[in-house]
Amino acid sequence: MTITLAKHAGVLHRDMESLLSRRSALGVLGVAPVVASGVFAGATPVRAEGTAAGSDRVPRDLRPGGAFDRRLSQLAAEGRLSGTVLLAHKGKTVLERAYGMANARTSVRNGPDTAFALASVAKLFTAIAVSQLAERGQVDFGQTIGAYLDGFPASVAGSVTVHHLLTHTSGMGNFQDSEEFRANVASWTSGAAMLDGIMGVVRETELRFAPGTRHDYSNSGFVTLGAIVQAVSGQPFYDYIREHVFAAAGMTRTDYYTLPQRLTDDRIARPYALLSTGERVDTLERPDLFWAGFIGEPAGDAFASARDMARFARALTGNRLLGPAYTTLAVTGKHPLPRNPGTPPGAIPPHQAYGPIASITRGQRIIGHGGGSPGAATSIDMYLDTGWVVVILSNHGDITVNPPVSQVLMQEARRLIIG
Q: What are the residue boundaries of the Beta-lactamase-related domain, all occurrences included (predicted)?
């Protein structure tokens, strides 16, 4: 693809793995080190001893001053990490660190309450909203989208189900690929206009394959889920999520912040991406290369602090967003995902659940999601059996790096937690 797609990369909210597989489409972005400042955020370490991964004890390597903490400092000093990292165990903070700048121009550092663009991690909120409506009997996972939304061709309205949308098996693609979207997104200056405009594109786009026949990550599918939330609940999508997800989980620094808010509020991390020249730039200040939509949408870019994401994890796993039965239903794997190269023989592949990715590692159930775009690299893991939560939020979205630092850190944390 040409630089035209890269110019609008600021509105891409794809899962990090999906972005990496399409990194040639963002060829104007390169990778180069840049020095980042590091600052400790106040941490409340858990009092713990030992290294037994399956017990109530916290491995020494995960505590302040341990191997993982030293690794974070190293990556920050090398310019490879800017953002916040939080590890919690059974509701108590084990390690919390912040590095780099939220706004380099105004010399505001990232801190524990800095809000970061979540990219596709925000799909978790949309998925939970749909499951809430299902729990109330207002949505049927097996029902086709034509029962809730008008305007789709009969072949789509009568074949794509809510289940297909939640599991990325709908056959829908990604609205960001549409010339119509790229030509009109700048004119959508409200949440309602953003959702209506994107849905206009989605309704006109043909399916890539017969629903249910394979898995193919779809941002269009999750925007459609957001439209269903809005239609069924009778509330604007953004208002529903604020009330029934953010407020219900006690998330005080989380919202779908608008572009004017992002440009004026230093508590919201600016997104920094690398050009092919090695220069790191604020994507909001380079509309010649990037285009930021007025507001995020159901497929991505709500904004949250690491502490708020830990609150979300506690609310979800504690059955405060859904009852126990529907929580279990939502987080249980539904569709196996392709194996990554190097996956050990006999290893259980991850499965797509209703929102999160569900996996089993050495007998432990883990759910989570990642996200990435120019200026954002995010990830959350929730350990259902041992109560661990790992949150990594970065405003250095170096999507051409494979694997991204956020994924490397998640794997290192997983190794230290599980053993």
A: 68-396
Query: From residue 42, how far is each of 10, 107, 196 by CA, in Å?
Result: 31, 19, 42
Q: Which of 121, 122, 174, 202 is nearest to 1 (CA)?
A: 174
- Nearest by Cα to 310 from 267, 238, 249, 371: 249
Long-range residue pairs from 97-100, CB within 8 A, at least 24 positions apart, any chain: 97/38, 97/40, 97/41, 97/43, 97/69, 97/72, 97/73, 98/39, 98/40, 98/41, 99/36, 99/37, 99/38, 99/39, 99/72, 100/36, 100/37, 100/38, 100/76, 100/395, 100/396
Residue 406 lies in a domain: no
For residues 390 and 406, give the distance between their C-alpha atoms in angstroms, rounded to a whole number. 11
CATH for 58 = 3.40.710.10
Strand pairing class (303-304; 335-336) = unpaired
Cα separation of the two ends of the chain: 43
Query: Quick one: average pLDDT of 163-178?
Result: 97
> Is-contact 23 402, C-beta < 8 A?
yes
What string of DSSP letters covers 211-223?
A: TTS-----HHHHH
Q: Please, are residues 122 and 225 in contact by the beta-carbon 8 Å criterion?
A: no
- Could you tell me if residue 405 is inside a domain? no
Its pTM stands at 0.87
pLDDT of 40 strictly over 50: no
pLDDT in tens, 220-278: 999 999 999 999 999 999 999 999 999 999 999 999 999 999 999 999 999 999 887 88
Question: In angstroms, rounded to a whole number, what is the distance separating the alpha carbons of residues 416 and 418?
Answer: 6
Contact yes or no for 196/149 (Cβ under 8 A): no
Mean pLDDT of 298-321: 98
Our count of domains for the chain comes to 1
Which residues pair with residue 364 across a beta bridge?
361
CB 86 within 8 A of CB 388: no
Residue 225's domain comprises 3-340+348-400+411-418
| Residue 28 belongs to a domain | yes
pLDDT tens for 54-94 read: 457 899 999 999 999 999 999 999 999 999 999 999 999 99
